[in-house]
Amino acid sequence: MKSVAYRSILLSVLMITSSLAGCLGDTEDSTDDTNLIEDPITVFGSVMVSTYHVGELVKAVAGEHVEIDYMSQDNIPVHDYDPSAADLIRLQETDVFFYHGLNLEPWVDSALESLGSDAPLSFMTHKMASGETTLDYQSLLVADLCELLNQGPFEATTLGSMPEDHDDHDDDHDDDHDDDHDDEGGMQTAAGHGDHSDDDDHDDHDDHDDHDDHDDHEGHGHAMAEKVIQNPEACPADTTIQVFHMEEGEHVLEFESEHGEEFNMAVLKMPGGHAHHHHDHGDDHDDDHSDDEDDHGEGMCHNTDTHDNYESTEEDCEAAGHAWMGDDDHGDHGEGLCHNTDTHDNYESTEEDCEAAGHMWMGHEDHDLPEIHADRVAHTLSFPIHIAGDWVDEWGGEHSIDSDSWNDNTITHYDNHEMWAVAQNSEDDQYYPGLWSKYDWTWELEELYYCQSTFGADTEADALAAESANASDLAAGCGGFPWSLMEEAGHDDHDDHGDDHSDDEGDHDDD
Q1: Are 188 and 369 in contact (CB under 8 A)?
Q2: Confidence band of 125 (pLDDT split at 50, 70, 90)
Q3: What are the backbone angles phi and psi of residue 337, rounded to the nearest 5°?
Q4: Which residues pair with 337 in a beta bridge?
Q5: How are beta strands 45-49 and 66-70 bridged, if at all?
Q6: Residue 183 has pLDDT above 50, yes or no
């Protein structure tokens, strides 16, 4: 057992060296030391560190006068690392242990407690000196988020959607939903691409804690919030702040809601946090880990086991059995991002292999999911129109629908719960150019029906105020005419629904 006095000497050397480092000048020494004999370097002890960044701090202060060792010997994110028995023995045998603190390493307290009196002296590098006030990063974060959600700037963003079946659309007709933010399914956005943040804070106005359907996602690799803050005082009502540890890369956020109302979300990095970078802490810790790693022939390597991306050389990456991604230039290899719909991980793949696996091809970062970065912008998120796609009505009329348009008409408002959309007719409309239309849709026995209940309103306000068609009467509820059955384009399984229908139905956009 090393004495406390010995450890105090080691700490004193660290502190003295730190003080001297601030006093050294840049003037050149003109003394000729060619014939001087250098004294051997004195090593005063061993220091264990939790991360590469902490090791660099210690190295900058103590230089070669201490031996530095790293808790994790593999490229495991510091948040996910769990010390092995061998790691704990190495920790016990060291003289001093330095770590970030701020719960960046959630395993530290239990590891030190397990060693009891054999634990080394330990210090948090983020802790303020005695007598100084430690910054409350959480309060700073909450204040920033609340200010952003109250004052903006706001940016409108429409969520992307996963390919899915239309099996459950008849469930959307229930009028008994008490929660306006239940299961929508598959509405997503890509967030955090290129951001080197450890802590991202997602604020949305959905009460997800009450959703029984979330049990269906267990085991799908969803990240769990490390902390949830409900209704912070300075934020808008019903605000929920969730704190996640997120590694560098692209993450897919999924939002679930039955009714699909707009909601605001902001993503910010936790102040005081450090990005986690994968470094090789093997036998040689003196490698130059500068920020200009591209100059050393390094690029991105994809760990095919954990689906993490990390900096590496092509040789080391392939030797580890992982997928070399190069210098972020994957176009020459025909590869891009593929989203695993079971685990919700993103990985490098070709479009052919991705679709063969039944996953979602996201392409070369040109997927249709909107990207959100951890910056000072509040995003007003809206769910895409439920009936987006290419359809054919029973008269052979084609309908190309997305959140912005119904054929050539420009959609300005839609309501997925009430199932209507208001659009301005194109200037080329045969009957009412430049005027306003209202479309209604409904589902019956998993089949889609639509009615253009208004097609020549003078103003947008008139179209919004117009009464919707009667969805309870598909035979005559569309202004006295039948609703039109819609089939997805490419399906030729229409029954002959048109025998009893008048040719004078109100949709003038099919011509």
Answers
A1: yes
A2: confident
A3: -90, 135
A4: 348, 363
A5: parallel
A6: no
**Pairing status of strand 298-302 against strand 389-393:** unpaired
- Least Cα distance to 180 among 260, 263, 237, 262 occurs for 260
How far is residue 325's CA from residue 311's CA, in Å, rounded to a whole number? 10
| Domains assigned to the chain | 4-23+37-124 (3.40.50.1980), 137-274+377-382 (no CATH), 293-363 (no CATH), 389-488 (no CATH)
| pLDDT band at 31; cut points 50, 70, 90 | low
pLDDT above 70: residue 102: yes
pLDDT digits (tens, 9 = 90+) for 129-152: 666 666 677 788 888 889 988 988
User: Band of the pLDDT at 428, cuts 50, 70, 90?
Assistant: very high
Are the CB atoms for 70 and 52 separated by under 8 Å? Answer: yes
Helix/strand/coil for 389 = strand
Q: CA angle, corner 276, sides to 250 and 304, nearest 5?
A: 55
| Distance in angstroms (rounded) separating the CA atoms of residues 507 and 148 | 44
Query: What residues have CB less than 8 Å from 78, skipping those under 6 apart?
Result: 50, 51, 72, 100, 104, 105, 276
Which position has the token pair 């902490």? 54
Helix (H) or strand (E) holding 188: strand 187-191
| Beta carbons within 10 angstroms of residue 495's beta carbon | 10
pTM equals 0.44
Tokens of 257: 């809601």
CA-wise closest residue to 51 among 157, 117, 124, 1: 124
**96-99/45-49 β-pairing:** parallel
**Please, which residues have CB within 8 angstroms of residue 337's CB and are 6 or more apart in sequence?**
250, 346, 347, 348, 349, 362, 363, 364, 365, 367
- What is the rounded distance in angstroms from the CA atom of residue 308 to the CA atom of residue 277? 11
